[in-house]
Amino acid sequence: MQDKVEAQPILSMNSVEVLYDNVMLAIKGVSVQVPKGEMIALLGSNGAGKSTTLKAISGLLKAERGRVSRGEIKFEGTDITDMLAQNRVAQGICHVIEGRRVFEHLTPEENLTAAAPSGMSRSTLNVEKEKIYNYFPRLAERRNSLSGYLSGGEQQMLAIGRALVTQPKLLMLDEPSLGLAPFLVAEIFGILQKINKEDGMSVLLVEQNALAALEIVSEGYLIENGRVVMNGTAAALKANSDIQEFYLGAGEGTDFHNVKHYSRRKRWLS
Amino acid sequence: MDWIFLSELAINGALTGLLYSLFAIGLVLIYKASSVPNLAQAGLTMVGAYVVLALARDLGLPLWLAIPIGAVLMFGLGFGIERVALRRLAGRPVVMILMMTLGLDIFLRGTTLAIWGGTSRSMELGVSYEPLFLGDIFLSRIHVVGAAVAIALFVAFMLFFRTRTGIKLRAIADDYMASWSVGISVERGVGLSWALASVVAMAAGVIWGEIQGVDQALSLLLLKGLTVAVLGGLDSILGAVVAGILLGIIENVGADFLDPIVGGGSRELIVAAVLILTVMIRPHGLFGRHDIERV
Amino acid sequence: MFYRLSGVHHANYVSDSRIFKVPADRNLAVFVLLFGLAAPFIVPSLYLNSYMLPWLIWTAAALGLNLVTGWAGQLHLGYAAVMAVGAYASIHAARFGIPWEFALIIGGLASSVIGSLFAFAALRVKGLYLALTTLAMQFVMDWVLTHSPAITGGSHASLQSPTLALLGQDITSDTGYYYVAFGWCVLVTIFMLNLKRTGLGRALVAVREKDFAAAILGVNSFYYKILAFATSSFIAGVSGALLVATFFFLAAPEQFSVAVSIQVLAMVIVGGLGSIIGSYMGVALILLVPGIVNGLVSGSSQSLGMQINVETLAHIPNAVYGALIVIILLIEPLGLGKLYGNIRDYLMVWPFDQLRK
Predict the structure, then answer these.
(1) What residues contact C123, with CB distance under 8 A and at least 6 apart?
(2) Looking at domain C22-356, which CATH architecture does it have?
(3) Are B182 and A58 a contacting pair at CB < 8 A?
(4) Contact residues, chain C, for B37 at CB < 8 Å
(5) What is the C-alpha separation between B111 and B104, in angstroms, rounded?
(6) Beta pairing class for C159-160 and A39-43
(7) What subunits touch chain B, counting only 3 or more CB pairs under 8 A?
(8) Is residue A196 a part of any domain in this protein?
(9) From the candidates A57, A64, A105, which should be mutated to test the interface with B, based on the most B CB atoms within 10 A?
């Protein structure tokens, strides 16, 4: 516990507010710290502001007429709140956006090339590609067919691989498990864990699938209505009864005949 | 029907068609990277021709020097146009973007003519007017040269789109958001596509200027260039080349059949008909992508 | 200050569906109307006939295009072709001896029929592809006009318009021409003002926003698209006919070329899609400013003793016209109408909004 406080977090967001179109307040003072080399999850339901938080970090808000209206985002100690998206990638932040948006008319091989930083030499790029194909052998098999025709799981792997080519220090993933079969989720999460352990890459994971996410992360933040409402270690979150009821689908052996006729409210919302 | 005559028509049509392709390649480059239909391509073509002419005639530079310098200037112009005019409109409805390119077209043409005057001038590339014989078939040398330039540019762009920068441009065309997310500078990519299209426009302007003189009429290429680009598929360079050859042949052979019937001048009509039929039957063209707006 | 209320607050549906929701707007409209009526007595006849008259007729035409592009959201790059149909149909009818009142209606109806052909393209594609199809149709129409001597007298010929006569009254004076143009423009404007209060107007907007969503609401988008094209073409046809009858006096194919189609679209977009007052301003800007700038340039060059090439002078209006489109789109993509609206909204609460800060 002691050295965790001393270690400078790779990313720290301090009470960040995001405005869309100058009117819509999407997140209202979110503070998140990602310690170096750790894997952190942002949990929460639809529209809670998880994706917006990631976009604020990666600089993609601009494309959606959004902006950070208050607070600051620091990456490795430097303020990146107003930096251009491409410069943040160069600094080492890469965002795997929601919905497996690969370049559909390019092959996986070209998808990886497209993401290569302009300064990267051809040999380094090839080494990176081989590394990615090692992580995802399925991609290697289909490296020369059009990405639009890959299966959902393969596209998600490609999206992650494409992000890895940029050699990020912080990898952010937005719902990588969305619409995938459970065994594929397990496979992808396994690889994420491996990347996190072997390369020491920090990972910020946004998930609705809290059950799967809490298995692999060390710490989690729970976001509701644009605010962080709970934060703690994975074990602590898993043990929390509210989390169990609302996100983990617990309540083992509930006899639905005896269930009480009022629905419990999430306590932190009022 | 005389077969030699027909094949002469077809071959000359194909050569002219490749010159349309030269124009259309510029349109395709921009559409490919940013889905902007560049109706200012005709204006750019005119500017290109006049710039080379001004360098060669008014400054007295030799052509081999005037053309590269012209290319550099046009490259800058294309970059500048995107930076100043188009970037602010990104994400706006297509009607505004169309209007912007039309406005640019009018502005470029007006400015060019205001600076250099509207009287037709000749390019004088030094290509001989002696016809070339291919068996019994007459060919015009400048058309052959132009077709060669078109094919050379086509090959160059096919290779370019395999390089890392080219792949990035294709990635931008696919998905802006995903491109930003992996650190591709979308703005610079789109600017580059405008710059390249302007250089292509200059090439088209020089060749067409040699054929029909450097004047306002260069802007009439727009309909033909658009038709070629749409017929080939707005985002396919291969399509632009194939469709150019096709349209050239259809136009040349068709005009030969139709002209006696309607009393001349049926080329425009054929081109317009091809454009309408393409949009009605196969809006994505021969080689274009499928994702298009349909009702 | 200028508006005697602060903001717009409606207490009932009737007040919300008024044409002029703010009294000051109505007063302004009445003032402009009175000025328009009195113009022949105030404005010198040179200005009346070479500036105000074409401005009014082009505004009527632009409003027609605004109906199909601004309200129904269908791109149209062949509007001049439709105007040509109306112009030629009316003039031929009038030359044939049909009274002008009916000749104008015949022109409008002929335009409606041809204009509806454009709508069939709109039933199949939209956006860019519709623009390209209508552009191609414009070229086809140009070709037909220049190649059919029966209609136009051939490619370089022109067709004399017979003397305009309405309600049994020959119209030959400048004032008379002006009032015809003024009357037509007012008629179209009233129609357009009321359009947004009708089911038709709402259906068109629904089709523009999302045609399949409109279809789910029971709005037959095919029907409304054809209706929009037919109505707008009617306006185009009559405007085209009046343009020839009161301004050009001779009909020639070049008056309705592609460049003119682009010009009308530019008027509509510079003015603002779907904005009526914007159309007035857009037409004024596109039609009048290039000439004014040219006058300024030649005037100042003369007074400064500089020699400007005649050719340069001849092409400056075009450069200015292109630059105007670019500049307006950069300043406010929604056009002059939106700029005017912004200023008006600002003044509506001025100076009280200062109190908040």
Answers:
(1) B295, C222, C225, C226
(2) Orthogonal Bundle (1.10)
(3) no
(4) 128, 131-132
(5) 10
(6) unpaired
(7) A, C
(8) yes
(9) A105
> pLDDT by residue (tens digit) across C137-167?
998 888 888 887 777 765 566 777 777 777 7
Range of the domain at B192: 3-281
pLDDT exceeds 90 at position A229: no
- Indicate the number of domains in chain B: 1
Q: Using alpha carbons only, give the angle C63, C64, C69 rounded to the nearest 5 degrees.
A: 90
- Distance in angstroms (rounded) separating the CA atoms of residues C192 and C241: 20
- Is A134 among the domain residues? yes
Using a 10 angstrom Cβ sphere, with 0-12 exposed, 13-18 middle and 19 or more buried, the burial of residue B245 is buried
Cα–Cα distance for residue pair A148/A110, rounded to 1 Å: 12
CATH number at residue A119: 3.40.50.300
The answer to whether residue B286 is domain-embedded is no
Give the count of domains, chain A.
1
pTM for this prediction: 0.85
The answer as to whether A267 is a domain residue is: no
pLDDT digits (tens, 9 = 90+) for A38-81: 899 998 887 788 888 989 998 888 877 788 888 889 988 888 88
Residue A159 counted as domain residue: yes
Output A18 or C355, whichever has higher pLDDT: A18
Q: How many residues does chain B have?
A: 295
Instruction: Note the pLDDT tens digit of each residue in A94-139.
Output: 999 888 888 888 899 999 999 998 888 889 999 999 999 998 988 8
Please report, for the domain that includes residue B219, its CATH number: 1.10.3470
Flag if C321 and B106 touch (Cβ within 8 Å). Answer: yes
Confirm whether B289 is domain-assigned: no
Q: What is the ipTM of this complex?
A: 0.87
Give me the helices (H) in chain A, please: 2-6, 50-58, 85-91, 108-115, 122-135, 137-141, 152-165, 182-199, 210-216, 234-239, 241-246
